[in-house]
Amino acid sequence: MGKLLTNSKSIIVLHSKLLCFSLLYLFISLFLALYAISSKSKCILRSTPFDYPIQDRIFSYPSSYGEHKYAVSTTRSKCSSPVSFSDYRNVLEEIQHFQMNSSPGTSSSSSSMAYMQGNADSFGGNLSTHLRFSYFDRRNDSREVPCGFFKRFPIGDSDRIAMEKCSSVVVVSAIFNDHDKIRQPRGLGSKTLENVCFFMFIDDVTLKVLEHHGLISRNSSEHVIGVWRIVVVLNGDLYSNPAMNGVIPKYLVHRLFPNSKFSIWIDAKLQLMVDPLLLIHSLVVAENADMAISKHPYFVHTIEEAMATARWRKWWDINALKLQMETYCENGLKPWSPKKLPFLSDVPDSALILRKHGLRSNVFSCLIFNELEAFNPRDQLAFAFVRDHMNPKIKLNMFEVEVFEQVTVEYRHNLKPSDHMTTPKSARKITKRAKTDSLLHANGNCCGSCQHYLSAMWG
Questions:
Q1: pTM for the whole thing?
Q2: Residues with Cβ within 8 Å of residue 178, at least 6 apart in sequence
Q3: Under DSSP, is residue 225 helix (H, G, I), strand (E, B) or coil?
Q4: Residue 408 pairs with which residues in a beta bridge?
């Protein structure tokens, strides 16, 4: 009987201890959960300086469209704040003041730079290397600059008129070959849509998909999805490669929107999470920059990007990549070094580009477009060469990757069999890998010699 009582007491004591531990665990879990919620709330308040209320949900998609599937994760702390934004009301007034005090038609510095006119077999004029490079120094050059539009850009007249009427800030994106989803921006102030235009350029392939999901009707003369005005580009007379057609609105935005003062290019794989007025003010106006663009998360040297382009078949014509790097090496391309400061890298992440339309940014955009037509639409390969050799020098704010990850959410491209439709079958082969360390040579020269670089790259 005594043993039974002793065992019962032991069991009661054990249960009591388990109950205490359970309660302790529960209280700790609740504390941590409340702390996380509190911290997140403070983070949202610190990074959302709005006087005006943020707009409610802009647009509802049919469930079949799946606009928010396959977001790319990031390891950045969600509560860190690598960029600060000014008060929304003050930013709005400053942007409006800038617009009112700018003369109509001067946003592209047309008084300082004229564009070459004419007709050619290609949209960009198919310029020779010597002719392209002759326009890099604009300090004492009054010649007309070649900047695309040697063919008519095939869009509707109503779209063209709407583009010319956009006189302040324009946000531009493009989807060709149904490569991405249309995603609505978030965090817009209540006055933003009165001061910012949103234009999405698409081709007929993308148009058919949008029709299939009931998002637009082909019978309508104008298409709008949420904040985006949809511009259908009849690309039969442009480039056979959809990516090259996307380069036109990406880099010739100052010509498509001649009266806009600022622009933001955002790849369609991204969703904008911060009001564009705040972004322009924080990354361009406050930094007194002509253009703002993110550093690449991994690469610093153009050589590294060229290696990745060949290795992962981002561009199928390896011989053309070889020729491009040979051309740049022979004309002074050097790897990044501290001598290039204040430029922090030679390789950008060009999925987000913010510009103040003016002489320097417009010249840069024209020059890099000419390089992309000459070689391929991989703009990161031509970026440093154009930036380092152009005059007058562009004022560039090359911000950290953490900023990019704070202001956007990245999604994966649409995956379908037609993704490689523009790649010739003969080119679809695995390229030989070159050793990255063999591409970076001492003494600041590009690989010591172009042949050294090319042999390493070609394997």
A1: 0.82
A2: 205, 206, 208, 209, 414, 416, 418
A3: strand
A4: 272
